[in-house]
Design a protein that fits this description.
Length: 200
């Protein structure tokens, strides 16, 4: 599907073609695939302290490094893998974040056992839609829903999942629709959310 060249987007999409494509085709569109949800949770953790475009440009390298974010394969990684990835210039070489990804894969497998899927767990935190206009500058960095998600994830042993990271995850995976009024994606995303069968 092509995107019209002259459209109004959320201001954060800027002029970078890769960033615009991510904004237009991914961000805010509801996701119920466990692998994609896990990948995003991990990449949001890697983003901590960095710009998302930095992570986006390295996303394929991250996928190669972490077995396509296959939960079982990542959970089976060990200290030798951590040392190897610390030499991989294609990703963010941060020991704590690499170790966190492996830890979080193990915790995510536990969530699957308990809830049937990661999707069922994460979508249980979907808040009621915000009433009123969504405009630049009015979107919070964290919400009560993201605080609750963060608190529960940390209680379950996840790491690099603070409330701000959790809200960025919720925005990207379509648990909320934070495309601003006037952005051409807002109505499209709303329609996809309306049509979505929530995972149980």
């Amino acid at each position: 599907m092509s995107t019209p060249t002259e459209v109004t987007r959320c201001s954060w999409a800027g002029s970078d073609a890769l960033y615009q494509h991510y904004h237009d085709r991914e961000w805010g569109r509801p996701v119920t695939d466990d692998t994609r949800l896990f990948e995003k949770l991990c990449l949001e953790g890697f983003q901590s302290g960095l710009a998302w475009i930095t992570i986006l440009r390295k996303r394929e390298n991250f996928r190669a490094a972490f077995h396509g974010f296959d939960l079982k394969q990542v959970a089976a990684m060990d200290d030798a893998d951590i040392e190897r990835l610390l030499q991989d210039a294609g990703i963010i070489r941060h020991r704590g974040k690499i170790a966190s990804t492996i830890n979080n894969a193990k915790r995510a497998l536990e969530l699957q056992q308990e809830f049937g899927s990661l999707a069922a767990y994460f979508w249980s935190f979907e808040p009621e839609p915000v009433k009123g206009p969504i405009v630049s500058g009015s979107i919070p960095a964290e919400t009560e829903a993201s605080k609750a998600m963060s608190k529960d994830l940390r209680k379950r042993g996840f790491s690099f999942v603070g409330p701000t990271t959790s809200y960025a995850f919720m925005q990207a995976m379509g648990l909320v629709n934070d495309h601003v009024d006037g952005c051409f994606c807002r109505a499209e995303t709303a329609a996809e959310r309306d049509a979505l069968k929530r995972p149980k």
